[in-house]
Amino acid sequence: MAKSGVLGNFEQIVEKIIFNEDELEELKTAIRNLTEKKTNAQELKLLLLKCRGRMVEEITEFAHFFTEKKTKDLLQAVRNEPNSSSPTKVESQLREEIQEKNELLETVAKRVNLLVSKLNNENSSAQTKSTLNEKVKKEIERCLNQIGAKQWVEMCFYDDYKFFVKLYPKLEALYEERFGEGEKNSKDSLEGKEIMANKMIKLGFPKDIETTVIKHIAIRNNFQHTMGDISLSNLELAREAFAKVFVYLSLNSIESKFLLKNREALYSQLTEFFSKRLTGNPAFRKIMLERFKTVFQV
User: Fold this and answer.
1) Alpha-carbon distance values, 49 to 27, 35, 184, 217, 254 (Å)
2) Tell me, what's the pLDDT at 253?
3) pLDDT tens-digit profile of 167-176?
4) Helix and strand numbers, DSSP H then E, in the chain
5) Residues near 75 by Cβ (< 8 Å), separated by ≥ 6?
6) Which of 83, 90, 147, 213 sits in a 20 to 30 Å window from 63, CA-based?
């Protein structure tokens, strides 16, 4: 019964250490912020690791204090034992109770060591992941700056008519950036062969992007000549062409080995970036995220 009482008191105190009310409130707030996209999963994980570290430290301190106190209590009990008591009985009782405390301390020590080991592994893993994420972010920033992504993103917030009209010159500007102004005076251009569709083929897009872009150009040329209305399907095709070209340009300058090694981190960071930047435009946000999902085969 005495042993059961000791364990009961021990467990109650450990339970209070683990279920710290202020800490639980902080975790609830962090989880709510993650749900509302006010924070990210990495910040929540670091908070959890911090909480676990605090638990390990406090349980370790308490275990040492608990065993030291119980040993002192036993020694004091021996000193106060009446002279008539049998020394053999007292020593036997002392050895038995000290053995129980040692067993309890050994159990606690094993659990604490396991927690410390797990915490160290998770901290190391979190640090490695954090370093990788920083490298990936820098690479994404470099690539987006290289293609002038700010102007592409701004197009997402044009009204439907302005977007449809502006996409064509944006594609033509892309061609001129790649091949230069001198292409305008080439032999093919003078002979009327350097039409926009041929320019897009010359840019060397993958076949599915090339097909989509050329379809959009044909519709745009028809619109330019007839000045008819832009249908919903026309606009959807323009958005699809935009998303395919933009995603292709964003990823095309990333070194292939880096891309293969860090696919998961790149996908995560890119989707997070465009999710935040395009929050005010659900239509483009959806099509861009779907395109990244397709490209990364998630």
Assistant:
1) 11, 19, 60, 53, 33
2) 82
3) 999 998 988 8
4) 13, 0
5) 94
6) 90
